[in-house]
Amino acid sequence: MDRNKTLIAATAAFALGCSAAGAAFAADRITIQTHFNPTLSVIGEASKNFTDNLEGLAGDDLRIRFYEAGKLVPTLETFDAVKNGTLDAVWGWPGYFMGKIPALTLFAAVPFGPDADETVAWMMQGDGGKLAQEIMAKHGVHGIFCGVIGPEASGWFKKEIKTLDDLKGLKVRYAGLGGEVLSKLGASVTVLAAGEIFPNLEKGVIDATEFSMPSVDKALGFYKIAQHYYFPGWHQPGSTAFFMVNQEKWDSLSEANKTRIKVACDANVAWELSRGIGEQAAAMAYYGEQGTNIHTWPAEIIEAFREKTAEVMAEQSAADADFKRVYENQQAYLKKVRAWSGPAAMPQN
Questions:
Q1: Buried residues in 165-176 as b, exposed as e (16+ CB within 10 A)
Q2: What pLDDT band is residue 27 in, cutting at 50, 70 and 90?
Q3: Is the domain of 204 the same as that of 258?
Q4: Closest to 202 in 3D by CA, of 192, 212, 214
Q5: What is the DSSP string of 178-242?
Q6: What is the pLDDT of residue 19?
Q7: Is residue 17 part of a domain?
Q8: Nearest to 92 by CA among 63, 69, 65, 59
Q9: Rg (CA), the chain
Q10: Domain assignment of residue 200, given as a range
Q11: Whether residue 40 sits in one domain with residue 137
């Protein structure tokens, strides 16, 4: 009898051990590639901040493999890789994919559009987040708003831009809708991922580039080649990051891990916004020490940017129903919230 009890106890212990091992084996797994390497100021740091927080929240329930930009898939091909399941997920800027899905750029950055605060409000309290998920879902991707930064600089130029004629024939790296605007003004525009910009600027393949905020641009070294730095960042007054996951992979995750991802993204929005604001003063002081020529666009050129932006938005809206629907929703939301934010804004001394 005692022997039977011992056998039963041993069998139960074995079964319990197998059950525990099975539970550990069943932990969700996900492979994530970032658009911006973690060593890159703000936008790269934010990608690691997100994954670190997610690991802390999930513990052993979610196993994450995190890869730097371009490690598994070229940055500009990551959406298709997530769509077809070659890559589980990507953290980064949805504007890179506007060539295939024009409406995605409206969730990324819009010339003369929403600033960072307005972007957060539209994404989290308006229809922006819901519309982004809806459009990405058509392509087998689940998208979650996962980061935001304030206005970018307008770019680095090897020569001073004094008139609109100086833009004609200029070879420039510009992404998103801002690139479409410059094309209308006669520039030759190309889109390059972060790591490709400096060598192309150095070799003279491009004459100018924009990328991000001053601290990010500093890390990429553009000031060493192009000495003319332009403001304001009319083309990207607020820019986002999204966590984009293959839909089947998303559906396979536990409800707890889905919630953890959402919580980590919400926290990352606040972290990246605050980090971005705090880092820029030091970068601008550094440029002053380096003798960088800081310029504000002439009123004539800003007005031309604004006029051509209106043309681009009208053309994109006419060509793509999703673009039109999202843009109209965004503009209606801005009109509503600016009834408050306009009068409430503090005067600048």
A1: ebbeebbbbbbb
A2: confident
A3: no
A4: 192
A5: HHHHHHHTT-EEE---HHHHHHHHHHTS-SEE--S-HHHHHHHTGGGT--EEEE--TT-SSEEEE
A6: 40
A7: no
A8: 69
A9: 23
A10: 155-236+289-339
A11: yes
